[in-house]
Write a structure and sequence with these properties.
Helix 1 runs antiparallel to helix 2. The longest helix has 14 residues. It is globular, with a radius of gyration of 16 Å. The protein has three helices and twelve strands, in the order E-E-H-H-E-E-E-E-E-E-E-E-E-H-E. It is an alpha+beta fold. Strand 1 and strand 2 form a beta hairpin. The model has no long low-confidence stretch (mean pLDDT 89). The protein has a seven-stranded mixed beta sheet with strand order 1-2-3-4-11-6-9. Helices cover 16% and strands 41% of the residues.
């Protein structure tokens, strides 16, 4: 399946450690707090799993030379969250976008840069203003909840980057967590 500049693969196999991760995330999501606090709880739950060897199968670590690859690892039966692995070859990136729900990312291998943007209005129409540029390395996490989640993510390293993403949405049904892609001028 293609969309949003990526290829999506459904993964039927999971390791015992991946099952453990989804159990921990489920407990955090069921805490019943707002989206921003849920993202913070899931971020802390994800961090210890980012250095676990064998968390992903060899197939789940495979990239695509044409576009970054999304491996859907788990969709919670009640649609409250999904876990995916994104595999990025050097230079691969998303378009500028925002999300339908909270999102937590943890870098499993390599490094990713995340450019944040702010949407602004002028007499000539909407435009984007770049904000913080963050680089996350293996073992580091970040998370957010809409609104204010406009960004672009890219593999900024020289090797393959792999990140685990936990979305507060049913990625199996939606195919992506993206709400909107922004093809707007960028003003400094």
């Amino acid at each position: 399946m293609h969309g949003f500049g990526m290829t999506t693969m459904r993964s039927e196999r999971s390791s015992p450690r991946l099952t453990e991760l989804t159990d921990v995330i489920r407990d955090r999501v069921r805490a019943g707090v707002d989206q921003a606090h849920t993202a913070d709880l899931v971020k802390e739950a994800l961090r210890p799993f980012l250095d676990v060897p064998g968390l992903l199968t060899e197939e789940q670590r495979r990239g695509d030379p044409e576009r970054y690859l999304q491996h859907v690892l788990h969709v919670e039966p009640d649609a409250s969250f999904s876990v995916v692995a994104l595999v990025w070859l050097p230079g691969q990136q998303t378009p500028v976008h925002d999300h339908v729900a909270w999102c937590v990312t943890g870098v499993y291998q390599g490094a990713e840069s995340e450019q944040h943007y702010r949407l602004c209005e002028s007499e000539r129409g909407p435009f984007l203003v770049p904000g913080e540029l963050a680089t996350n390395h293996a073992g580091e996490t970040c998370g957010f909840a809409p609104p204010g989640d406009i960004h672009r993510v890219r593999n900024c390293g020289t090797g393959t980057a792999i990140s685990l993403h936990v979305y507060g949405a049913d990625i199996g049904e939606l195919g992506t967590s993206v709400r909107r892609v922004y093809d707007l001028p960028v003003h400094e």
